[in-house]
Design a protein that fits this description.
The protein is 0% helix and 49% strand. The protein is mainly β and 141 residues long. The strands form three sheets. A four-stranded antiparallel β-sheet has the order 5-4-8-9, with no helix packed on it. The protein has a three-stranded antiparallel β-sheet with strand order 1-2-7, with no helix packed on it. Strands 3-6 form a two-stranded antiparallel ribbon. Strand 8 and strand 9 form a beta hairpin.
Amino acid sequence: MKLRVKMIDGFDYRVGMREFPLVIQISTDETVELAEKIDILGLSLELIVNQDIFFGGTSCILAYPRTTFVLAPGEFHEILVDVLEGEYDDDDPVDEDPEALIGMVAGEYRLQVDVRVYRKTAGQGFELINLSVVENVSIPD
């Protein structure tokens, strides 16, 4: 199985933004049956020159997979995520603490995505498959 991350075509990734949408793509070289729910274990952006600037974190873990779907070679299972989701409270007035609401700053970031996929086995069980991708993304001035 393979994991890819794609930026959204047409989205303006820029300084000050308060959302960072991505598409997580899972593909396979053989036909497999997977649990519908895919766990996003980690989703983070870290400014390379200053690791104190960090967005994202971990997500909840599925207790037990139930419904499934079939993924064939050449197909993608896609999940839309927002790395900055939960980072900002929309109810916070901007003028009370403007520094807390700056959003993204310019620079080179390390993007890391970790997911857990549940592949159905011959019996009633599931095999856990952990997939990760790390790549650099730039936010221009």
